[in-house]
Amino acid sequence: MLDVRRRQFITLLGGAVAWPAVAHGQQAGATRRIGALIAFAKDDPETEERLAGFRQGLAKRAWVEGRDIHIDYRFAAGRGDQFPVLAKELVALQPDVILGHTPGGTVALQRETRTIPIVFVNVSDPIGMGFIASLPRPGGNITGVLHYEGTIVGKWLAMLKEIAPRLTRAALLANPKVTSYQYFLRSAEATAPALGIDLTDSPVQTVADIERAIEALARSPDNGLILPPDATTVGHRDLIVALAARHRLPAVYALKTFVAAGGLMSYGTDQNDLFRLAASYVDRILRGDKPGDLPVQAPTRFETTVNLKTAKALGLDVPPHLLVAADEVIE
After folding, report:
1. pTM of the predicted protein model
2. What is the tens place of the pLDDT at every residue in 144-153?
């Protein structure tokens, strides 16, 4: 489903270059300042995992937090309305570079500055969002790491159909305010008919929206859920997993944190790897490269996670080939 060769080409084009162990700024004894606008809550396990990857990527390139670099963090805790406020705070600090997490965070940063370099992560449609001119040559003050190509939705739909062959309808559940909703929706609409699936458009922003959307889907049989990456649904993952279980709805998620919480299955990028890749570009910008000249990097690692306990509770048989392909099986 995915254009692997294209991803590899972009990744090779934009991969990190081996740099000397000691940066010019470090030689001069200067402390560089990095801003980080994160979509999730500070104490969310997803936040901790991703920022650990980011710090690892920086440390690999000889940047040590508290010695060579100072990082100013801001956490939106899944609330899209916090992005503009937090972006303004970070830009006012005049950091050397800012890490922008998710489309919502990157939009807010772009509105505040066209000069401070921004490295985005967990963004799937940077051209459509107006962040860059092209993947190989972004232009402007923004570059970063691609989260997903639109064709990933075909993989999610196919997995849903494989594990629930009688499925005839699926809902795409996400908050259009904080994710590239239309980007995923267009791809889903193009793919679903070939799989015999009717697609339901289910934008959500609040807990009440989530409850209404899932309950409406559950009123008829043979339905399922697809959840693309979205800070709002991540923040309410326990509720979504509980509702899917209560209404016996199979679901496929972009993030494995849902499966760890009891969800059925996921197929998605390795988040630690994405944040390490983002760190490689923060490093290059701190050393003098211009973001507009750095090609957008593509993800290189994908993970499949399956929860056998949940499948059994839903009365579903997991196809053997799906189990073989799984990187992690929760029993």
Report:
1. 0.85
2. 999 998 899 9
